[in-house]
């Protein structure tokens, strides 16, 4: 039995194994300790837990036997020993503890199928006492026993590991992935915690790694393990907070709820984790977490599907996310987070393949509706800032919205990345690189964040550092289109033309960023002196031109490399008229350095309304 104040600790390091939804067998946390106390050989699997208390009840029923009279004697004997150990009195009535308050609370579930459990009142008393003695250091406050947290260093940074799907239907995996995103998002709005973005965390899905390695790779102090089981609209979610330095399990709870209650449960998890991590919540955070708006079940289900698809950020997954968010809105036209998700989906889609500025008008519409419903959602502020920057060319408005997004959620890697883009594209390179590095700190294993930092270094003319950062991103995903294209662009600037051409050809073969990579390949041929080879891709790109969305900026890059400056500026003018999203880098793109003294270029720069700054020189 543990001494008061001693961690309900781990004799060996736990493994996170998302492949089978279990932690490694050598882990002896609270579940195993419960079994040791009751003489059992192994802990119950997480999916069998109705709650930490209900799981213990099942073990107690096994320990005391089926005979009611004998069982009661054994139960009272064990209870008396535990009560003496805990320093509290046992009342005369069954189930009554004289502690000035109940230790443990009964919950009898009524749901159908695999979610149904039942517990007895006598077991409740014993299980509450046993949990109190085994797993929690105690202190007394006002004469009443209060459960406290394990001793040890405070938690400043944590990650929500991929929620495990314990539903009988494997198709519910999207539900578990969406919960990972939702819980991570809600925790991220606690300003005194650093919370790793879900995109990095999802790298551990289906992998088995020691907790110490995960904590080191993510630079966190603790992680949240969680599992979900769903049957229709009934949901059981078990979550546990584990400190990485000593593998101490600081908190665990199981929530049984209806699908529409998921936002409330998320908020309760955030509050519990903040308490156990000893992170005080601000008055504003307390008000936000106390708000539990009613959600239509079908809308919540579609919203979680949208979140799970949004995190993948491929063209196909973003289209699925858009459809899911629109379905959520169709079921609940006042569900602000669904509008926020829809705005993000449209914004991300606009950057896939050819620039599609028309999608940004839809992103703007969805973001404005989200803010009309809830002005304090950070995501629509970020999406609106992106639209102002790349479509409206309204830089003061972009700065206002992006700074608001960062203020509302300092843990949003996307908000820091976009604000960094704003600063870099304004020519404020030092500040922009700092924001890009902050985004990487919050989402260290995400290729988009690492590539965005590399692009910031590229536009600042720090080409060697940019190459190093692009190579780091490609180690995470060797087929990343943005990283391959970006590395080729950096090689162009340092004169490595053959290496650049090979990268652009690979990107085109993979079907990533074909228009932009084709333009850069033509640019490479022009710089190598192969002018006829450069004109062929230019004609191919020109053939893609439509009345609404011409890839004009890409053609401007080719004609600049060919030295045909008037034609290049003609295409830049067309890019401006079409709201080509790539035009937002006009001020800092080194590929256009030869145009900067041209009067027409200067006039276009003025019409783009860029904030004043100094463009670097080599």
Account of the protein in words:
Strands 7, 8, 9, 11, 12 and 13 form a six-stranded mixed beta sheet that branches. A three-stranded antiparallel beta sheet has the order 2-1-10. Helix content is 54%, strand content 9%. By secondary structure, it is α/β, with parallel strands linked by helices. The protein starts with 14 loop residues before the first strand and ends in an 11-residue tail after the last helix.
Helices, strands, pairings?
Blueprint: E1 15-17, E2 22-23, H1 30-38, H2 52-64, H3 68-86, E3 89-90, E4 97-98, H4 121-135, E5 138-141, E6 144-147, E7 157-160, E8 164-165, H5 173-188, E9 194-195, H6 198-201, E10 208-210, H7 211-218, E11 222-231, E12 234-243, E13 249-258, H8 262-276, H9 283-290, H10 297-310, H11 315-331, H12 336-349, H13 358-373, H14 378-392, H15 395-408, H16 413-425, H17 429-442, H18 447-459, H19 463-476, H20 481-493, H21 497-510, H22 514-527, H23 531-542, H24 552-561, H25 565-577, H26 599-607
Parallel strand pairs: 7-9, 7-11, 8-11
Antiparallel strand pairs: 1-2, 1-10, 3-4, 5-6, 11-12, 12-13
């Amino acid at each position: 039995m543990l001494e008061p104040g001693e961690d309900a600790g781990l004799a060996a390091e736990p493994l996170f194994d998302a492949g089978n939804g279990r932690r490694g067998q050598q882990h002896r946390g609270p579940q195993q300790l419960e079994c040791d106390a009751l003489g059992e050989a192994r802990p119950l699997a997480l999916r069998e837990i109705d709650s930490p208390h209900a799981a213990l009840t099942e073990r107690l029923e096994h320990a005391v036997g089926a005979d009611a009279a004998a069982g009661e004697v054994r139960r009272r004997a064990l209870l008396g020993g535990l009560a003496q150990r805990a320093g509290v009195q046992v009342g005369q009535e069954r189930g009554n503890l004289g502690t000035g308050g109940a230790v443990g609370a009964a919950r009898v579930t009524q749901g159908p199928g695999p979610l149904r459990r039942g517990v007895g009142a006598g077991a409740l008393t014993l299980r509450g006492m046993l949990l109190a003695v085994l797993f929690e250091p105690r202190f007394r406050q006002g004469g009443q026993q209060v459960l406290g947290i394990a001793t040890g260093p405070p938690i400043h940074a944590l990650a929500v590991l991929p929620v495990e799907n314990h539903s009988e239907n494997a198709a519910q995996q999207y539900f578990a992935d969406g919960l990972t995103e939702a819980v991570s998002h809600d925790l991220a709005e606690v300003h005194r915690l650093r919370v790793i973005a879900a995109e990095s965390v999802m790298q551990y899905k289906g992998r088995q790694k020691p907790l110490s390695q995960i904590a080191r790779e993510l630079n966190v102090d603790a992680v949240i393990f969680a599992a979900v089981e769903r049957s229709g609209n009934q949901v059981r979610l078990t979550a546990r907070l584990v400190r990485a330095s000593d593998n101490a399990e600081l908190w665990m709870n199981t929530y049984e709820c209806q699908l529409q209650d998921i936002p409330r449960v998320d908020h309760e998890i955030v509050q519990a984790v903040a308490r156990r991590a000893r992170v005080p919540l601000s008055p504003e955070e307390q008000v936000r977490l106390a708000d539990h708006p009613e959600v239509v079940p079908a809308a919540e289900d579609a919203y979680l599907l949208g979140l799970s698809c949004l995190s993948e950020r491929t063209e196909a997954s973003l289209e699925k996310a858009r459809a899911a968010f629109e379905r959520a809105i169709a079921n609940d036209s006042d569900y602000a987070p669904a509008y926020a998700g829809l705005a993000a989906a449209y914004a991300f889609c606009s950057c896939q393949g050819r620039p599609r500025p028309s999608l940004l008008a839809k992103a703007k519409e969805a973001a404005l509706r989200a803010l009309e419903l809830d002005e304090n959602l950070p995501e629509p502020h970020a999406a609106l800032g992106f639209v102002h920057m790349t479509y409206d060319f309204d830089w003061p408005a972009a700065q206002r919205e992006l700074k608001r997004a960062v203020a509302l959620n300092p843990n949003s890697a996307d908000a820091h990345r976009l604000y960094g883009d704003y600063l870099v594209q304004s020519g404020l390179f030092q500040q922009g690189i700092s924001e890009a590095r902050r985004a990487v700190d919050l989402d260290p294993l995400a290729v988009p964040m690492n590539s965005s930092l590399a692009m910031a270094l590229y536009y600042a003319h720090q080409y060697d550092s940019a190459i190093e950062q692009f190579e780091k991103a490609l180690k995470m995903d060797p087929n990343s289109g943005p990283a391959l294209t970006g590395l080729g662009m950096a090689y162009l600037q340092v004169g490595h033309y053959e290496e650049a051409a090979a990268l652009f050809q690979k990107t085109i073969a993979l079907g990533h960023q074909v228009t932009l990579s084709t333009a850069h390949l033509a640019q490479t041929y022009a710089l190598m002196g192969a002018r006829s080879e450069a004109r062929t891709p230019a004609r191919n790109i020109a053939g893609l031109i439509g009345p609404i969305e011409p890839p004009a900026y890409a053609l401007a890059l080719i004609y600049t490399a060919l030295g045909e400056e008037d034609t290049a500026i003609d295409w830049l003018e067309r890019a401006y008229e079409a709201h080509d999203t790539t035009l937002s880098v006009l001020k800092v793109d080194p590929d256009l350095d030869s145009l900067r003294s041209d009067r027409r270029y200067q006039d276009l720069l003025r019409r783009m309304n860029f904030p004043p700054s100094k463009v670097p020189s080599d």
